[in-house]
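Changelog note: in this version the structure field was regenerated for every chain. One regenerated record is shown below for reference.
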Amino acid sequence: MASTFDIKGTSLDSFKIGIGGPTLNRDGSSIKINDSKIITTSDLGARQHLGYRSTRWYSTLQFTDGLSSGTGASTLNTLSYYPFYIPRSVTIDYFSFNQSATGTANTLFRLGVYSHNSSTFLPDTLLFQTSEITTSATGQKGETVNYTFNAGWYWSAVWSSQSIAISAETAADSLIYYLGLSSWSASATCFGYRQASTYSAGASLPSTALTTSLTDITASIPAFFFRVA
């Protein structure tokens, strides 16, 4: 039967685990195994990101060589999923993208974010979404939100009644390191996954991500932006 012991909740400076096992040592506010510090999520986040400053805008893309119009970022009657990583906890108050070309008249879309399922490695539970937004004009498209991201992987989702041109990274390396390919290729790309789903005016994004018949997105990866509260 498993048992637990919280050295931080005691006055002990060290605690040996079993006969011949490692020793937990107190080092200020940190705990070490033998002489190696236990790396926490916040430790890793501090190594991966300087920190999110209030009221500043940040991108979900780690690197970019200049954004172009990604005409395949969202297509007619599909849910388009794109992974992104948040290295440290941050509370945001706005989530958006830039529409780079005028859309078809009466075109509507919703933008949302799903959690990451660490067993299926796919989008999972809807965390938040915008109301319906029109594509009748170019520019920033998004909405006020109030959400706290913990460090980890997430999936942005775009659901639209017509194709939308979104400012995207079209020359970035493919994400096949993370997403893989449906079949072997030395030249194919994959920036996200796409699921057929007929857009319904007034309907919300699915509470659980639809992932039954995914196809690879091969054109580009949109830049989504969030503002820190």
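Spot check on this record: The longest strand covers residues 139-149. The chain has a mean pLDDT of 83.
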